[in-house]
DNA sequence: GCTGAAAAGCATCGCCT
DNA sequence: AGGCGATGCTTTTCAGC
């Protein structure tokens, strides 16, 4: 399950990855047909890509609004300190918040960029307050999404 | 394929969504076992969730590094104008850039938050330059990701 | 809306090239 | 490495509750 830097992907592997990124539930028979292989070697390649960790998993993409999350927003959070213990503690905290979907440490010292979901503006405000009130948090700037022109999970293949 | 606001999800539906968000290739038999149904009604529910647009699709999650994308970064882009034609033109442009994975318009006027991937720092600099040089772009602030503590696609279920 | 059986299709294995 | 054929599951439909 570890990415092997010595492992090289050929053109067929890349085609397989592109197809499965677009439709993760495609049957192996259909996938094999598209990449021009018979089913067994195609399945062997998929299994190898999974074992190498190049395919990390398969996920259904759900509609946030249908699940009650009307709002997606981002937060730029600055901490009081750049000590590793403080940074790790903050990361550990937001990892436990289900509404925090992503947490990226930003170059420049003690800053994080978070992506969050909220049911409504009251929920969003509550989350922002909880962030502001959290230990070692110096400042919180929220970036509210008005509309999303592109939202492609994954990477170009 | 449209989300119906009148459509309500019961507890079993939510369980199905949670399971498929976590493992999108789970067999219907296994899914049915986990939610306490036999296979046919479970499959009918999944089909309905797909038709309602609550399940938008299924995707393999790929390792960006294995595909040659070492860097994920964000860019805050400010435009010269808030005219709708200018905003749409910018969105149309970045939609065509494969390295731009997300483009969100931010409340406050003429700003966008982009998530991008790059093969290396040279590629990242080239992308930033292309953004800066694009029509109607007033300013670009890049937020480079040092490390990612959490990266959960999807929503809490 | 669920169950259970049955047909068709798929995943997967061993062996061969 | 890829392909062929066989086997056991899975999916999917359909009748009946």
TrEMBL record, chains A, B:
PROSITE patterns membership: HTH_ASNC_1 (PS00519), HTH_ASNC_2 (PS50956)
Gene3D superfamilies: 3.30.70.920, Winged helix-like DNA-binding domain superfamily/Winged helix DNA-binding domain
InterPro entries per record: ArsR-like_HTH, AsnC-type_HTH_dom, Dimeric_a/b-barrel, Tscrpt_reg_AsnC-like, Tscrpt_reg_AsnC/Lrp_C, Tscrpt_reg_HTH_AsnC-type_CS, WH-like_DNA-bd_sf, WH_DNA-bd_sf
Listed name of the protein: Lrp/AsnC family transcriptional regulator
Keywords, alphabetical: DNA-binding, Transcription, Transcription regulation
Origin superkingdom: Bacteria
CDD domains: HTH_ARSR
Residues of the HTH asnC-type domain: 9-70
Species assigned in the record: Siccirubricoccus soli
């Amino acid at each position: 399950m570890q990415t092997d830097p010595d492992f090289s992907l050929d053109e067929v592997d890349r085609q397989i990855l592109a197809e499965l990124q677009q439709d993760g539930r495609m049957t192996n028979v259909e996938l094999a047909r598209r990449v021009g292989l018979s089913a067994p070697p195609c399945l062997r390649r998929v299994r190898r890509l999974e074992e190498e960790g190049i395919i990390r998993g398969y996920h259904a993409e759900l509609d946030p609004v249908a699940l009650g999350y009307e709002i997606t927003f981002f937060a730029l959070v600055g901490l009081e300190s750049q000590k590793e213990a403080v940074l790790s503690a903050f990361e550990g905290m937001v990892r436990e918040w289900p509404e925090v979907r992503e947490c990226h440490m930003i170059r420049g010292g003690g800053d994080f960029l978070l992506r969050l979901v909220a049911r409504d503006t009251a929920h969003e405000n509550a989350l922002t307050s909880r962030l502001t009130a959290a230990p070692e948090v110096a400042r919180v700037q929220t970036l509210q999404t008005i509309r999303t022109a592109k939202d492609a999970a994954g990477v170009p293949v």
